Amino acid sequence: MKDKRLYSPKYIKYILDKYGFTFSKALGQNFLIDGNIVRKISQQANITKEDYVLEIGPGIGTLTEELALNAKNVVAVELDEKLLPILAETLKDYENVEIIHGDILKVDIESIIEEKLGEGPIKVVANLPYYVTTPIIARLIEEDLNIESITVMVQKEVAQRIVAGPGSKQYGSLTVFVNFFTQPQIVIEVPKTVFMPQPKVDSAVIRLDLKKELPDVDRKVFFKVVKAAFGKRRKTILNSLSSSQLTPDKDTMRKVLEACNIPLNARAEDLKIEDFLKISKTLPSLDIY
User: Fold this and answer.
1) The domain spanning residue 122 has which CATH number?
2) Tens digits of per-residue pLDDT, 137-181?
3) The model's pTM
4) How far apart are CA 164 and CA 160, in angstroms?
5) Where residue 275 sits, what CATH number does that domain have?
């Protein structure tokens, strides 16, 4: 039994019953069952016949199939060993797909790109388990991998935090972190009804286009400033940074903020990325390290 495409709910049920597969809550498994969403993900990721794609968490291959139809090559990394025989069957007709069994947080991504994906640049596409969304995105954008873009399904709330602007409640350290490395945008809003099993919250697909040039700043200092600022976001920026041991005393921090033309009574959520960059660049110039 097989309908035309893997996203058919009837076929999904058939293949899962055939292999006696049960969903793992611990792995955050929710499979897409809506063809329109599957096609839109590939479209919004701008997948073409020239592209090499790294997919994370293929499940039974629903999205993998769509990627294979549109890309040059696809390598998919799957953690759940029980899905490997299922993927071997569902994707057997696609010669441009390779499945790797492993944890994306532990595998050597750089070697995978160099050996199996034409050395890049590549496009990453994924339906991420909610519980590992942030560490996976962090690894992909921090490690200077040859990645052009990352298009991922995440919890809607997380997507909104990533694209939030200064002055909003959603704006925080995650926003600044992701925007430091990428240009993010929400490209699809996804209701919880298009998954099997159905999660408790809605999702969104966000595309992160990696910046070719990053700000010229000491990243260790920059992210230490951001973490300190949002660690006590209810306090003024003067008080939150003064209590973080970034400077020897409050008076020194006051001088730093004044030199950056940042109001002493501003809060972390009021500051743009450019403001955090100014602070980070000014701190070392005061010989406090």
Assistant:
1) 3.40.50.150
2) 999 999 999 999 999 999 999 999 999 999 999 999 999 999 999
3) 0.93
4) 6
5) 1.10.8.100
